[in-house]
Amino acid sequence: MRSQFLGLLVFLAASAVVAGLGGLATGSNVNGWYATADKAPWSPPNWVFGPVWAVLYTAMAVAAWLVWRRRAEGSRAALTAYGVQLVLNLLWTPVFFGLYPAMGTPALWIGFLVIVALAVAVAVTVLRFGPISRTAGLLMLPYLSWIVFASSLNAWAALHN
Question: Could you give the CA distance from residue 66 to residue 84 in angstroms, rounded to a whole number?
């Protein structure tokens, strides 16, 4: 039981690290260049992003933990896919928010490429998690939906800034 709890803490901590590092990249830029950027008409207010991401990061961690604790055939590949998407998630924020002041619009297009790769990686993760733990696969679906939505916001920003 102790190892199960520690495993969950590790997955929650990994999500917290990615969220925290992402926050460092957005902190000054959300109130900087992004505050005056041309945003998609369907873009939610900035205050929505924090709570949504908190729920999504928690669901992602629980999903990965459910797969990890099963130790089923395919778990290693599923968790590798999870790790890849987590790295892409970590990469997107500094590319989109952090590079724009130095590079301008090309940074937004690079961000778009990263977020599309992220969407693919999350879809692969969902497909790999599902057969191991249906609950884990389902827990990843809101995240996939959010990434697709965020991709539309990124595309708009790249086209209009």
Answer: 18
d(CA 8, CA 88): 21
HEC-encoded secondary structure of 56-110: HHHHHHHHHHHHHHHCCCCHHHHHHHHHHHHHHHHHHHHHHHHCHHHHCHHHHHH
Q: Please state whether the predicted TM-score (pTM) of the whole model is above 0.70.
A: yes
Return the closest-CA partner of residue 90 out of 15, 151, 11.
15
Domains in the chain with CATH codes: 2-160 (1.20.1260)
Query: pLDDT tens digit string along 121-137?
Result: 999 999 999 999 999 99
Q: Which residues of the chain have pLDDT under 50?
A: none
Q: Which three-class secondary structure state does DSSP give residue 29?
A: helix
